[in-house]
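Researcher: Please predict.
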Amino acid sequence: MKWIRRILFFLIITIVSLLILLVIFISPVAKWAIEKYSVEYTGRQVRLEKLRINLLTGSIHSAGLKIFEAKSDKIFFQCNDLYANIVVHKLLASEYELTEIKLTQPSLTIIEKGNRFNFSDLIDRFSKKTSPTPANSKLVEWTIDKVEIDAATIVYTNTSPFNTIKIDRCNINIPGISWNNKVYSINTDFSFASGGDVKGKLLFDKNSWVYAVRADIDRFDIKPFYIYLKDYLKVNSLDGLLSTHLNITGNMHNASAIAASGSVTAEDFSIIDNVNDKLTAVKKIDILVDSINTEKNIYRIASISLLQPYIKLEMYKDGYNFNRLSTSPAATTDTSSVVYSNVFVMMSDYIQDIAKNYVVSEYNADKFIVQGGQFEFIDYTLYEKFHYNFDSLDIISDRINSNNSKISFTASSLLNHSGQMKGKMDINPKDFKDFDIDCAIKNLPVTDFNPYTKYYVATPFLNGTADYTNKTTVVKRQLKSENELIVNKIIAGKKDKTNKPQYNMPIRLAVALLKDVHGNIKLSIPVAGSLDDPKFKFGKIIWRVLGNLITKAATAPFRLLAGAFGGKEDDYKEVDFNYLQTSLTDNQQKQLDRLAKAVKEKSDIKLELIQVFNKDDEAEALAINLVKKKYLGVTDSISDAQQQQLNALNILDSSFIKYVDSSLISPSTFLSTQEKCIQLIGKETLQAEVDSIALQRNNAVLNYLLQQQVSKEKVFIHNTDKPNDPNLGNAPKFVINVAANDDTTMNKKP
């Protein structure tokens, strides 16, 4: 039996020796084999600085692990220290339990090229079809008690457009995953090299594919996404800090069905356009989400707050500043890669998918607030730049609910640092095209709009403030609007002759006529119509009404004067006289009283009274009158009875005719009585006397107006110098013209 013991002893010594050799040499052999055959089995070269395998304890420890890119000396993945421990004795029962997997300071480089990544070859290699598992085969039982990744670095590079995002100090902890545990829990925290810290937790049910995410982001700098925005907008920069505290749940089988709650905050957001102007910005945006569930059509927002939002709109002859920013994504031969290469495309597609699958008909926001907003508008289409600011803009809505009969917003703003705007808007939540507006604007300097008034009517305003109220209702596309404009202490300047205006309107005269005694203009402008009418433009109609008022005021001032000061419109057009009349009647004085009142109360207008009369006709009337006086023996101081007798005498009276004939040296039967009277008095004498009568009439009118406290500089009275004046008639009269004070076309010699 000794030989049996010797054989057994030898076998034991051999086995022990082999085990010792295996323990001693397993690590270098494994390291050699991994480095030798890594390319053959993975397509990648793998290098290890150190590898220690302890078969007795089941621990595996490597240092300086490096995995290179396919067919390249560039590093794809590296790890300073990798540790794993397996429970050895359970391997005998076909159970695989790892008590720990730990990676310390790993580094991963991800490169995207279109719809391919630098690890796509690994996916292709290890996702090849394998033989199906037999139906009666036993499931592999595996357990990993703990997975830890400490201080990882991940560098993601997109080649089109070229952009790099780096994640530092990434820590990942995965406790207790196994073959029979359906819910995985992953905890992580990391920082972006560009700025921002993230803490997150993911729960994932591997059977149902349901997930739950808690995402806490602190001041993430969105600047790295600028390169993606450039695909759609020609801008020079994108800045902002994003913070979130969100709970999100969903199912990976239905990506558009999500539920979320929490808060989203953006700070110091701004976009600088391609000419280095600030296009839009906001100091802070706070969105507090009560609950959102796209699948159940629940959109409940606790509050939305915007602090100091800003937007700049510039208008040019060929469009707006936003038009020049528009572009399209860079052309690529592989259109399927667009979704992967641009985060904004992915977001757009995702939102469109939600909108397509779920109709947003139920929504609620407890509070919507805009504080300290600013809207800047610049118009470069005029002769002069028009620059206008809506400053300190505040908008509040306490309750936005799709089930309410209306959603109400109140707003207030400073207008160009001096005017004030307050208003309210009610919107039908079932149809946003139905709404009510009630707003008021006060203390708006009209001089701010001089670039427009110079461009359209060549007239600047030197002073004046406007108050404007608007009440507008739109129901079923039918608009009804009441507009009231009050312009206080308005003063129109002289016409600017530098450039040709779009419309030739006597603005100064119109303003002077429209102003009341206090120097104010009050206009009521009702507007109504269908918004579906392509010719109906609300703004254009308002301006058209204003234009018509100005035109009517300038071309038909007498109607305005009659409406303001009483009397008939014709009373302001002309003052009629009888032949030889040199004093004023009561009716004529009443006419002049109204004219005097108009001139005094409307300080910016002046009057021109042009005496129009036919000298020959008046000379004839004068000749007949003088001969009648001689016939009746009437002196210059005529009594009322004598005047009646004079008026009653008919020039066809035979006695009068006989008197005229007897007074002539050589009477002719072929002359009329009128011509005979002219011969008796003499044409030169008559013409001189007619001129004197005309002068007396001028003086009578002027003196009366001066007696009514009308300034002499405000009245211009003269005879017509037009031989074919269309106003010439059967009797003398004064034709009245109304003009602005600066009108130099009036004859300044009374």
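Model: Residues 241 and 421 are 32 Å apart (CA to CA).
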